[in-house]
Specification:
The protein has helices spanning 7-17, 35-49, 62-71, 91-100, 117-131, 169-173, and strands spanning 23-29, 75-88, 138-150. By secondary structure, the chain is α+β, with helices and mostly antiparallel strands.
Length: 185
């Protein structure tokens, strides 16, 4: 899903084709995925070429996903995130793995000739200095965003009206209802 150019329209179309009261479950890369590679490539570009070019495609942030699902008409949303950190021997192995997964840079503003050798070599050193933490391997973070949304349906649970609760939150949390309050019972 992270390759979809128009995510709001895509999610709206999914909502329209699902039966009423049906779940939509999805996972996609997003947020700070590959932030180590992004930062090191920017610094290497700046150092070797005097400017910055787009090398990693933009990704949706977890804060945006809930709003996109709501805008598409989904109800009872759940959005969660996992950071999966994979160790690589070097940036060249990481980039070869990304290319083998079909995760090449698809930005229209990318350089068509690819990365220059001096930028790649500088990237290796910068990445290792900033992120290796003294280890021989380098980490690559993949942020996976999980989402669940339900299409609207007749039998779907609805939230209770405001103020209809039977339990006082202050009683549950203790005196005054402030978490961490030292006057708790």
């Amino acid at each position: 899903m992270h390759w979809i150019n128009d995510l709001p329209t895509y999610l709206s179309q999914i909502n329209k084709i699902l039966k009423p009261d049906s779940p939509f479950l999805a996972a996609m890369l997003g947020g700070d995925s590959l932030y180590e590679l992004r930062t090191s490539l920017q610094l290497a570009d700046l150092d070797r070429r005097g400017g910055v070019s787009t090398h990693v495609s933009p990704l949706a942030d977890i804060r945006d996903i809930g709003g996109l699902l709501t805008r598409a008409g989904f109800k009872m949303l759940t959005v969660d995130v996992d950071d999966i950190i994979i160790e690589y021997p070097d940036t060249f192995a990481l980039m070869m793995d990304l290319q083998a997964m079909g995760e090449s840079n698809a930005a229209l503003t990318r350089e068509l000739n690819g990365l220059r050798k001096e930028v790649l070599l500088a990237n290796e050193g910068i990445y290792r200095e900033l992120h290796a933490e003294g280890k021989e391997s380098i980490p690559a973070t993949f942020r996976v965003i999980y989402m669940i949304g339900w299409t609207e349906g007749e039998g779907q649970a609805k939230p209770e009206p405001r103020g209809s609760g039977q339990v006082n939150l202050a009683d549950v949390l203790g005196s005054g209802g402030t978490p961490g309050d030292e006057r708790r019972r």
